[in-house]
Amino acid sequence: MRPFDELLADAVTMHRGCACPGQILGVRMAILGCHLLGIDEPSQGKRLIVYVEIDRCMADAIAAVTGCRLGRRTLKHVDYGKCACTFVDTLTGRAIRILAHDSAREHIWGYVPFGLDKETAQREAYKIMPDNELFVVQEVIINIPDHDRPGRPVSRVICAVCGEGINDRREVEVNGLVLCRACAYGSYYKEPEESDGWATQEDAHQRLA
Question: Which helix (H) or strand (E) holds 96?
Fold first, then answer.
């Protein structure tokens, strides 16, 4: 793989110039995961799939280093809120889960001089701390079904309630009806109440504020 500093620069660019401790952890985690799987050029092709368990800075660094993307179906977000990722080699079937040690921040002063602010100290220490102090590594098993793999959609059906299309077997059946998950379980969004008195979109935004 390319040198750490180059990979970090790519991650910082993706993250709009922010070189925070989470970015350092993400870059090092991605390097380690690829190394353990024997993948030297992760951004080439779709051999590598990564499950990322948090939607913070680390996730951008993982994407920058590996080339995995949601739109390519090679980056999967599992909303656990943990600083952890699982790297899957689809060629061999091997999967490695790497978790950032919570205790790592307690050891930073053994690697940097006193007097730095906490964020700078974390950032600089995480660049040089040994992998075994930063991470917990475990080999795991992941069975990726066909409808979660890269490629064209394997299915498409129409929700019986909202009429919207559903790809890749994300539908559910309720009382004999094929429904999208939003109609079956409730959605994360709501439509604004109808009001004939709103003459413009700006008026609508003011009424909603």
Answer: strand 95-100
CA distances from 33 to 3, 16, 51, 181 (A): 15, 24, 12, 33
For the record, the structure tokens of 51 come out as 């499950």
- What single DSSP character describes residue 192? P
Distance CA 157, CA 190 (A): 23
**Residues 129-182: tens digit of each pLDDT:** 999 999 999 999 999 999 999 999 999 999 999 999 999 999 999 999 999 999
Q: Does domain 4-146 have CATH number 3.40.50.720?
A: no
DSSP class of 24 = H
Q: How far apart are CA 81 and CA 98, in angstroms?
A: 14
Residues carrying CATH 3.30.1330.130, the chain: 4-146
